[in-house]
């Protein structure tokens, strides 16, 4: 029976990734007819991924015969595969002898990179995740049902402008945009990339997968790097990157993209890294940015997601989100936070290095005279929770000291360029009938119906983060004395502000 509804859930798993697809037919929207899983893991020391696994197990058990039709492992990093085994061990494999557990069937497995890299655990007790999961495939079809794409494989034929699906689940088609990218074959200005560290290469081979239903597409990028995006651009626009072209004006091989998972959890570091294609640092920087912008324009998506948590790699980064935000297909806001009622906005949390943006502020001096000043923002490196009307959705959603919300009523509004600093109408614990404060982490559902209708909704998390992080906002609302601003004042001097009336014009520092 043909599919009638597809729901993609981007679970909050802390620093990791878990994207679960439920495919329903028209007879029953309470239990899926098919399911698909793209990655399931975390590097964060939280119970987040356990909660995601429990929810997925519960859904699978509603099925007449619990089945994961397609398991896609984009690459072998721990934070993408760590909980696969925990999930499947809630079930018997076909022919298993534990009568207390229901049987789970996995029909096929696709994975990126070297199969030997999928071993996890302590020395002497390592388990290969691909091998373990393959035991849930029928023995008669097992060997043919576990595959990794060939080097630089793609399902798009640019000469014919046609897609060849690698699988079709009752009308839900799966395409491979790029798989097992090889750096030597990526053509960017006809130069060969230099060597890279092993971590970059492991991420570079990530499978970039397109899921299409009713003409609407969702794109999963794994931990794709700058060169992975360059390979995708090469597939979709075969000529080398031309800085004079506006890729948004070219043909759209990926029409009607609903959602894209940001590559590598929104990493600005690896997304803007092309392995030293030019010895000229300025030239390399411009080329790397153009590559990301071209990818964002090729995607032409309505929404983006980033699954991450406060971690040493600083995901998601504001630089990457900014590039995608500027190239989002303009639609109405899919989600409004109850705490920001009637604004059309919601929150997201992002890592912003100090001095990333220029901002114009209006302030009053000690004589109550209005003056305008250009400052660099933020003045410290940290994670920031901001508001946005754009369709940017992060699982690390709202970080605040829940016991002291009144100190954090200033909140930057993005996107930059039109941004400002405004008072966030946050709910206070002592206000009657006020909506509850947002959760620090958020799980997002992206739904597509049989007529191509699209919605975004949220799912409550059944866990608490170990240590909620305080929101970081400029402390501009504290009344203090300041010296008059004079023309002789050094540019680096930072006068204290007595009051702020507006904070506007956020623009990226070149």
Essential attributes:
510 residues, alpha+beta, eight-stranded mixed beta sheet, seven-stranded mixed beta sheet, 26 strands, globular
Provide a quick synopsis of the model.
The chain has 510 residues and is α+β, with helices and mostly antiparallel strands.
Task: Kindly describe this structure.
- The chain is an alpha+beta fold and 510 residues long.
- The protein is 16% helix and 29% strand.
- The chain is built from ten helices and 26 strands.
- The longest helix has 19 residues, at 281-299.
**N- to C-terminal separation?**
54 Å
Give the low-confidence spans. 401-410, 423-430, 466-501
- What fraction of the residues are assigned to beta strands by DSSP? 25-35%
Tally of strands: 26
How are the elements arranged and paired?
Blueprint: E1 3-10, E2 16-25, E3 34-42, H1 48-61, E4 67-73, H2 78-81, H3 84-88, E5 105-111, E6 119-120, E7 127-128, H4 129-134, H5 142-145, E8 146-147, E9 156-157, E10 162-163, E11 167-169, E12 172-178, H6 198-204, E13 208-213, E14 216-220, H7 226-236, E15 257-261, H8 268-271, H9 281-299, E16 301-306, H10 318-325, E17 346-352, E18 357-364, E19 370-377, E20 382-388, E21 392-394, E22 410-413, E23 420-423, E24 443-449, E25 454-459, E26 500-508
Parallel strand pairs: 3-4, 4-5, 5-8, 14-15, 15-16, 16-21
Antiparallel strand pairs: 1-2, 1-24, 2-3, 6-7, 9-10, 11-12, 12-13, 13-14, 17-20, 18-19, 18-26, 22-23, 24-25
